[in-house]
Q: What sequence folds into this?
């Protein structure tokens, strides 16, 4: 048995070596991808020639950032127990399998016909409204750039656990710098290829992480671990821990499943993966691959979080010592022990790479989507001649700028930014889900109907936030209700688009024919 400080030094050395190798691979992929990003379509969509495996992993890694492993898994696993794994199942079945089956083929066909490279361009071409494109671009920029700063948080929690006393800003800077390098060089191609590598690391990491914890003597296997959780639930009077369907938390669980699953149906950084896939045969393969990926990552993350009570003591108020964000990091450090074992050292390094990969893949997709909102959607609306090399240069510069902004937001921890992050998923998806899906499937969807859906997402979330704040006297309560607000916004968007379309003027027949014609 060696001293803990000696073992920690060993963990740090192995982790630094792993980070160095990982960083070199990411940079090389970025440099390799430069030649494939000479045009705007090449930079944003890889020339629409991305294969099944790459597309599936790009979708999955964008879906799951480090926040799921640290924030969501730690909090929901602690509060709900094993039932929190249903969120992962819902993400796989509804957020991946159903989304690909319903949206992928039609999205690829229609965006090809319309020549749309972004979500705002789709709205402009489908409904003949430049103002709609500008509005959609502003929604993306205002709510996705702040949201991107959230991806740093999960990685930072484990980083400071492995490197006690280290400045968390260093970890954030590593994520920002690496993402900026390969994204600016290689655009979507580099993002997609790095997502594939990062996805493989995520799968290996979550399997190793779950196995290491289950085999730990404190857990003693699946059966004994479940019994321990049952005992803890009985001792604390928390029925959620012992109920496979959420107990008293069933409603909260359902809202989180709906928000995190159906929310992907309206998020532009997810939808663009359908734009870029090379053919319909690849869509079938990607549907299966992305769903299996989501099942492994989602269920694995919440499973680890649900075992956190075995390793992390509860404070007097019943909350985990150190807060929810430290549940998974503390679980990992205590489960893997401090005994100097080389295997557990390597496991920790792999898990560190898992969280780094999850953070970078999500960040790169959000930044690419946000930069295109400005360089492809907003600036050309004011200056139609803004094209070619100038547009490419500005797009690369904006990617760099938005990575820097997300880094600054994360380090500054500004209150209004944190608040925007809490509602951004629901607002963005609530604005886009109705107009996007109805526009894909129904010829008679009108511009007025689409506008109603686009506006309703923002209005519903804002109204419910004000209502919850006024009724409780606490904005914190309104923030805790953000899943319900987001789900409500999406539901209203889906209902209001056809309702308004039925009583308003149709889109010109020529534009509708262009969108739905078969070539």
A:
């Amino acid at each position: 048995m060696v001293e803990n400080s000696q073992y920690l030094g060993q963990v740090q050395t192995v982790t630094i070596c792993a980070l160095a190798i990982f960083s070199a691979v990411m940079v090389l992929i970025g440099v390799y991808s430069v030649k494939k990003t000479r045009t705007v379509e090449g930079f944003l969509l890889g020339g629409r020639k991305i294969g099944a495996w790459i597309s599936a992993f790009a979708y999955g890694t964008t879906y799951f950032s480090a926040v799921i492993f640290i924030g969501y898994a730690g909090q929901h696993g602690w509060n709900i127990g094993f039932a929190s794994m249903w969120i992962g199942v819902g993400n796989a079945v509804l957020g991946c399998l159903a989304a690909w089956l319903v949206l992928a083929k039609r999205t690829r066909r229609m965006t090809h016909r319309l020549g749309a490279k972004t979500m705002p361009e789709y709205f402009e071409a489908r409904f003949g409204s430049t103002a709609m494109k500008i509005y959609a671009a502003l929604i993306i920029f205002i709510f996705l750039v702040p949201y991107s700063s959230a991806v740093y948080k999960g990685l930072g929690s484990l980083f400071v656990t492995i490197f006690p006393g280290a400045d968390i800003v260093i970890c954030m800077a590593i994520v920002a710098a690496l993402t900026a390098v390969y994204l600016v060089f290689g655009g979507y191609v580099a993002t997609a290829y790095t997502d594939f590598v990062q996805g493989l690391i995520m799968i290996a990491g979550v399997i190793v992480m779950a196995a290491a914890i289950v085999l730990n003597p404190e857990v003693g296997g699946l059966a004994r671990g479940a019994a321990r959780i049952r005992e803890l639930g009985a001792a604390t009077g928390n029925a959620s821990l012992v109920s496979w369907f959420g107990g008293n938390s069933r409603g909260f669980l359902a809202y989180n499943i709906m928000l995190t699953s159906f929310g992907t149906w309206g998020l532009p950084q997810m939808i663009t993966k359908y734009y870029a896939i090379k053919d319909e045969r690849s869509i079938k393969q990607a549907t299966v691959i992305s769903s299996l990926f989501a099942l492994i990552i989602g269920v694995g993350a919440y499973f680890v979080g649900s075992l956190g009570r075995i390793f992390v003591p509860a404070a007097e108020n019943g909350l985990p010592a150190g807060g929810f964000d430290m549940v998974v990091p503390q679980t990992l450090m205590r489960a893997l022990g401090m005994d100097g074992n080389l295997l557990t050292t390597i496991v920790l390094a792999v898990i560190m790479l898992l969280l780094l990969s999850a953070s970078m893949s999500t960040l790169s997709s959000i930044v690419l989507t946000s930069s295109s909102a400005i360089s492809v959607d907003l600036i050309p609306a004011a200056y139609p001649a803004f094209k070619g090399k100038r547009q490419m240069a500005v797009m690369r510069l904006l990617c760099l700028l938005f990575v820097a902004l997300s880094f600054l937001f994360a380090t500054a921890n500004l209150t209004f930014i944190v608040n925007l992050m809490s509602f951004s998923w629901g607002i963005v998806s609530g604005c886009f889900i109705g107009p996007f899906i109805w526009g894909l499937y129904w010829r008679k969807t009108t511009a007025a109907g689409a506008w109603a859906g686009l506006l309703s997402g923002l209005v519903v979330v804002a109204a419910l936030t004000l209502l919850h704040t006024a009724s409780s006297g606490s904005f914190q309560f309104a923030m805790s209700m953000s899943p319900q607000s987001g789900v409500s916004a999406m539901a209203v968007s889906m209902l209001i688009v056809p309702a308004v379309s039925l009583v308003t003027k149709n889109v010109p027949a020529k534009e509708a024919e262009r969108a739905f014609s078969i070539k």
Observations:
- The chain has two domains: 4-413, 415-519.
- The chain has a mean pLDDT of 82.
